[in-house]
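Project standup — Tuesday

K.O.: blocked on the structure for the chain from last sprint. Re-posting the sequence here as requested.
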Amino acid sequence: LTHDNHLVVATQQGVYKFIDGNFQSLHTQLVNDRVNSLLEDSAHNLWIGTDNRGLFRLSHNKLEQLSNQTDLPKNKISTLFQDKERSIWIGTNSGLFRLREVPFVTVTTKHGLSGNYVRSILSHSDGSLWIGTSKGLNKLNNNVISSINETSTDKKLSILSLAEAPDKQVLVGTYHSGLFITTENGLEELLTTKDGLPSNEVRSILVDSSKNIWIGTTYGLVKASPNNDIEIFNKERGLPANFIMALAEDESGKIWIGTVEGIASFSQGDIQTFSLDDTLDAEYVFGFHVENNTLWMATDRGLVNIDVVTNAVSAVTKEDGLPVDKIFQIVEDKTDTFWLTSNNGVINVNKSAIHDVLQKSTKYVDYNFFSQGFSLLNFQINSGSTPSATLHNDGNVWVATAKGVSYIDESRLKTMSQTSIPVVIEQLEVDGKYYPIKPSVTLPAGTSQITIHYAGLGYLMPKHISYQTKLVGFDKEWKNKHKNTFTEFTSLNPGNYTFHMRAKYPNGKWQDKVATINLIITPYYWQTTWFKLIIVILLLLSLYIIYRYRMVSIQRSQIKLKELVAQQTLELQTQSELFSYQAKHDQLTGLCNRRAFDEWCNDDLKEANKNSKPLTIAILDIDHFKSVNDKYSHLTGDKVIKKVADILLGLAQKSSQEIKLARWGGEEFTLLINNDVEKSYDFCELVRLTIKKQNLSHLADDLSITISIGLTDNKERHEYDKMLSHADQALYFAKQNGRDQVQVYQVKNHENREK
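H.V.: unblocked you, prediction finished:
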C-alpha cells in the first residue's frame, strides 16, 4: 500500500497498480518480469526487485535499473528494506547489499567526460563548469556535458589550467601545446613558444584587475598586457624558481607567485621573494586563497598563512593535528569552512578552528577527513595545476581527482550529518572480568582498571562516527574520543559515577541520545568516611604534641641559626662575586675577556644604531709574538702581554674618548671606541707608536715589539659579527702588508684578499 493509498501488487508477470477498481500495469518495461519484492521509500520512490533482471526504481514515472551489468553481482532480488538512515538493503541469492546516500558525487567518462584524469576545474560566471582532463576539455552546463576541441585539428588537448577571460571566454593552459582560448567553434591557439612563451607547459593562469594575463609555465612566468606586450620573469629576474605552480592577486593588486622553491610577490615592477625553507621547511606552493589582508597557501608542509600587511608567516601542519602535510588547494565555502585537497582525500575544517591553532588557544585542529568510504572513486586529488578545486555557484565544492571530477553535495552532507545515531554500551570490563550491562553496576573494593566499549549504530558512515564520553563524578566536560570505540579509567576513587557517551557524523552536531551506565565502586573500610575521620583526629593530636615539642627546640636554636645563616650568606656572596669576576676577566692581564667584550658590543651597538651614533671596533695583534715565545720563553711572552695590557689601559684612561678594552685571546686585544673610525684611528696610531717606543730591556735583552691594528665602524655595517669580521680583515691586511701599522677596513682590500 503506497503513501497515497494505492495498492501495488507484484506478480510473476510484472507489477500492477489498483486504480478505480481495475489493475493496471505499473510500467510497460516490467510487464513480463517475475517480481519478488516491492518497497516504497521515504521519498515515495517505488523499488521493484525482480527474479532475473535485477533492481528497478520508479521515480516520477522514470524507470532506472541496477543489474549485474552495472553494480549488482546477481540479478535475483528476494527482499528489500529501508532503514532509519534511508539506506536501501537488498537481499539477493549472493548475499546482502546496501544502497546509501553519500556526500560525494563523481562524474566520469560514463557521464560524458573526455577523460577520467581531471587536472583543473573552473566555475564560470555564467553558471557553467569547465573541466580539464588529460584527454580534453569539457563543459558542464544544465547537467549536460559537452566536449571542446581544437578548431584547426579537432584533437583533444591535455589540459592543465583554466581561467576566465575578461570577455567571458575561457583561457586554457595545456600540457604540451601552450595557451588556448575558447571561441564559438572550439579552442584556438593564443600563445606558444613561437610567440614568446618560455614553455608550452602552462600550469597556472591569472587574469588580474588590470586585465593583464599572467601565465605560469615550467620555465618562467609571462605577463601579457591587453595591448599584447609580453614580459617574461624567471629566476634571473628574481623569482625563487622557474617552475610556476600557482598565481593569485590580493586586494591591493599585488600578484603572488607560487613556485617549487617558495613564493614571490610582484608589485609596481618589484619582485619580493619569501623563503619558506628556514621556518617551515616548505618548498612547493600548490595553490592560493586570498581574503582580507591575508594570503592562505597550500604547500607541501601544511596550510600556510601570510599577513600581507606585516608579512608575518604562520602555519597549521601535521604537528598541529592535520592528517597530512601536503595540501594542494584551498576552497572556502559559504559557511566559513575550508576544504583542503590532498593526495589522500579532502579535509573539511572550520576557519575558526584554524585560527584557534594559529593563536595558540588550542593545540590541535578539529577537522573531518573525507577519504575512503565517502564515494570518492579515487581519493588522490590532483595537484600541480590550477584550479584543481573550486566552489561552484550551486554551493557545492568540486575537486579534480585521478578518476573523474567529484563534488560535495552540501544538501546530502547536511542531511547525513543531522541523522540521528542510536548509541549503545556494548561491554564493561573491570580488571579483566566482564560484567553484564545493566543500568547500574556495583564494583568491588580495589577496582583499578575499567574499560567501557561502546558503539554508534549508524550505517551511512560507520568508519567516520565521532564519539564523546563523560564520566560524571570524574570529568567536568565531555571528552573527545574521535573514532575510538572504547575508553579506560584507572585508579578511580570509591564512589558513585555515571558514564555517558554520544556520537555524531562528520559536520554534524552531537546527538541528544546518550548511552548511560551507573558505576558504584565499593570502598575498603579504611576508605570510609568514619575511618578517615578517626585518622584525622589522631593525626591532629599527634601534630599538636609534636608542634609543642618543636616550638621549644626552635626557640633554643633560633639565635644560633640566624648567626649561621648570616655567616653563610656572606660567604656565598663573596664567592659569587669572585666567580662572576673570574667569568668575565682575564687572569693574566686583569682585563675583561672575550665574553665580557661580546656583551659590551651587543649592548653598545644596539644603542649606537638606535641613536645613530658612531661606534668603532679595533683588533690589536702583537707582531711576531711566536718568535718572542720561542726566543725568550713563554714566561717572557706572558710578561710582554701583561705590559701591552698595562699600556693599553693607561692610554684608554687618559683618552677623552670612551674606550673599552678586552683581551681577545693569545696575543690579541680588542677595543670598543665610542667614536667614528677617523678619530679612533688617531688613538690606535698613538697606541702603536707608544708600544713601538717602549723599552722592554728589563724583560729581556734586545727585546722590542710592534703591533698591528685593524678597525672598522658601524657606518656601513650594523651587525656585530659583520663589524668584527671586517676589523679582522683589516688586521689581516695590515699583517700582509708589512705589520707595524693601523689599517681601516676597505672593501677593495677584502676583494683583493679573496682573489
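K.O.: great, moving the ticket to review. The mean pLDDT is 87. The two ends are 99 Å apart (CA to CA).
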